[in-house]
User: Fold this.
Amino acid sequence: MRIFAVLFTLILLAGCATTAKYRAQIDRWKGHNVNELIQAWGPPDTTFKMPNGNTYYSYRVHNVSNLPTYYVPGSTTVSDHGGKTYVTSSGGYRTGGGTIESNCTTSFQISKKGTIVGTHFRGNACVSN
Assistant:
């Protein structure tokens, strides 16, 4: 149950970050020169030459986060009923853990003249504030 609380908290913290804001952020690159893009984003992870002569520059971000595990200790209860003592114990348990994987691939279409003419992105981490 605690893992759901952690995931819910992460979702709330990322609540202001949206794909619509990311779309707006990368669309601002349209009309800019490819050299400006490379200066800001660095060399692309991959390039692809299209049949029309344009080139796609793609950038990939990939993150893996491990969620912590927690140990919930057991308990011991001692009770007295009718002169008899009863001891009840319950064992502890481990909860939480798991892995969150996030990625975002952002591509920019560059014209033959070196101008950014299109953008595209995909992945669960393509968000911006």
Remarks:
- Strands lie at 46-49, 55-66, 69-72, 75-81, 84-90, 93-96, 99-110, 116-122.
- Residues 55 and 63 are 26 Å apart (CA to CA).
- The radius of gyration is 26 Å.
- The chain has a mean pLDDT of 89.
